[in-house]
């Protein structure tokens, strides 16, 4: 009974704080968090390390390759290892196809291929050109 | 509760079996034949025959490849790798190209043939056309100029005016 009275009193009390117009916590457009390339790389490396099934890996690849940047070799390597983990060779080949689409010229693609040569040889991944050239 | 559910399932099974007895037998026979045929699908030439495979055969190929890809990828043969890539990301299903290969050549050739035909028609018509009128010559036009000056045509701003520098009736270079 007493608590009820107290609560009704509290409710009827004028709240001074809310009379002031609330200030926006942030301004409209320029306040978006800009992710750095390093944190992007780190985010996707951890994502692919924890991806558990093929759908998850392919979803991650879709998101990762949708940005206006070429994923770092570290991301590609963890994606390749993820596709090895979920036993999908085709996705591993597809990753290189995606890189070829994203880079600006052939020299950059070749640089990626050279950089990732150890992983490719370790996992036995061929690129699409190697598969369908002969 | 469980017993009645089981009974219902059994009854439905019996009912369907009674309704389509020859069908069911045929279906089971067909499935066994496809399985035996599907187990013999060679992966070396999947690209060529993929379109002609039935959906159950395609499913079998999928299964085969799934098992293959669990092995070490270095031990896979070139053909197996190709098949794995083709089945997953090859140009079939939603990845079928909008226009089949060779379309560009066809379009270019077709447009070339049309332009050539139009040129032939133009040339043919021109070859049987009468010569241009005798008034469209430089001599005729100069004579027309002289005649205009003689008759003092357009004396204020035109051909017979003082200090006229235009060409008059001459249109030939």
Automatic annotation (TrEMBL), chain A:
GO CC annotation, single: mitochondrial inner membrane
**Known pathway:** Energy metabolism; oxidative phosphorylation
Q: Which domain of life is it from?
A: Eukaryota
The cellular location(s) given in this protein's UniProt record come to: Mitochondrion inner membrane
The GO annotation for biological process reads:
mitochondrial electron transport, cytochrome c to oxygen
Keyword annotations for this protein, in alphabetical order, are: Heme, Iron, Membrane, Metal-binding, Mitochondrion, Mitochondrion inner membrane, Transit peptide
**GO MF:** metal ion binding
tRNA-binding: present as a keyword of the record?
no
Q: What Pfam families has UniProt attached to this entry?
A: COX5A (PF02284)
* SUPFAM superfamilies in the record: Cytochrome c oxidase subunit E
Indicate how the chain sits in the lipid bilayer. Peripheral membrane protein
Q: Which InterPro entries match?
A: Cyt_c_oxidase_su5A/6, Cyt_c_oxidase_su5A/6_sf
Would I find Membrane among this entry's keywords? yes
UniProt subunit comment: Component of the cytochrome c oxidase (complex IV, CIV), a multisubunit enzyme composed of a catalytic core of 3 subunits and several supernumerary subunits.
Protein family membership: Belongs to the cytochrome c oxidase subunit 5A family.
Sum up the protein's function in the record's words. Answer: Component of the cytochrome c oxidase, the last enzyme in the mitochondrial electron transport chain which drives oxidative phosphorylation. The respiratory chain contains 3 multisubunit complexes succinate dehydrogenase (complex II, CII), ubiquinol-cytochrome c oxidoreductase (cytochrome b-c1 complex, complex III, CIII) and cytochrome c oxidase (complex IV, CIV), that cooperate to transfer electrons derived from NADH and succinate to molecular oxygen, creating an electrochemical gradient over the inner membrane that drives transmembrane transport and the ATP synthase.
Which protein is depicted?
A: Cytochrome c oxidase subunit 6, mitochondrial
What is the scientific name of the source organism? Lactarius akahatsu
Automatic annotation (TrEMBL), chain B:
Q: In which pathway does it act?
A: Energy metabolism; oxidative phosphorylation
Q: How does it sit in the membrane?
A: Single-pass membrane protein
Pfam families in the record, alphabetically? COX4 (PF02936)
Query: Mind telling me which GO cellular component terms the entry cites?
Result: mitochondrial inner membrane; respiratory chain complex IV
Compartment annotation: Mitochondrion inner membrane
Q: Note whether Mitochondrion occurs among the keywords.
A: yes
> Key word Nucleotidyltransferase present in the record?
no
Q: Which GO terms describe its molecular function?
A: oxidoreductase activity
**Keywords for this protein:** Membrane, Mitochondrion, Mitochondrion inner membrane, Oxidoreductase, Transit peptide, Transmembrane, Transmembrane helix
The main location class comes to mitochondrion
> A Gene Ontology biological process annotation?
mitochondrial electron transport, cytochrome c to oxygen
Please, which domain of life does this record's source organism belong to? Answer: Eukaryota
Family recorded in the similarity comment? Belongs to the cytochrome c oxidase IV family.
Question: Any idea what this protein is called?
Answer: COX4, subunit IV of cytochrome c oxidase
Q: Which organism is it from?
A: Lactarius akahatsu
């Amino acid at each position: 009974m007493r608590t009820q009275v107290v609560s009704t009193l509290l409710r009827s009390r004028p709240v001074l704080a809310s009379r002031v117009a609330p200030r926006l916590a942030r301004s409209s457009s320029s306040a978006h968090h800009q992710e750095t390339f390093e944190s992007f790389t780190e985010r996707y490396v951890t994502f692919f390390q924890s991806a558990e099934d093929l759908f998850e890996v392919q979803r991650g690849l879709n998101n990762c390759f949708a940005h206006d940047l070429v994923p770092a070799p570290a991301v590609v390597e963890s994606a390749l290892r993820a596709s090895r983990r979920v036993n999908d060779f085709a996705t591993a080949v597809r990753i290189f196809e995606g890189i070829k689409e994203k880079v600006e010229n052939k020299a950059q693609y070749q640089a990626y291929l050279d950089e990732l040569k150890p992983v490719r040889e370790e996992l036995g991944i061929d690129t699409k050109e190697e598969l369908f050239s002969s | 509760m469980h017993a009645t559910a089981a009974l219902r399932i059994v009854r439905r099974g019996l009912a369907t079996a009674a309704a389509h007895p020859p069908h069911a037998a045929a279906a089971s026979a067909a499935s066994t034949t496809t399985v035996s045929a599907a187990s013999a699908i060679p992966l070396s030439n999947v690209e060529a025959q993929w379109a002609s495979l039935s959906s159950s055969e395609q499913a079998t190929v999928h299964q085969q490849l799934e098992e293959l890809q669990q092995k070490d990828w270095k031990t896979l043969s070139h053909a197996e790798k190709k098949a794995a890539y083709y089945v997953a990301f090859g140009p079939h299903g939603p990845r079928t190209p909008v226009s089949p290969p060779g379309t560009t050549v066809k379009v270019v050739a077709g447009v070339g043939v049309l332009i050539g035909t139009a040129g032939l028609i133009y040339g043919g018509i021109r070859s049987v056309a009468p010569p241009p009128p005798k008034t469209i010559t430089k001599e005729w036009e100069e004579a027309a100029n002289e005649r205009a000056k003689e008759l003092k045509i357009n004396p204020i701003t035109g051909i017979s005016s003082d200090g006229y520098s235009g060409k008059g009736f001459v249109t030939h270079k």
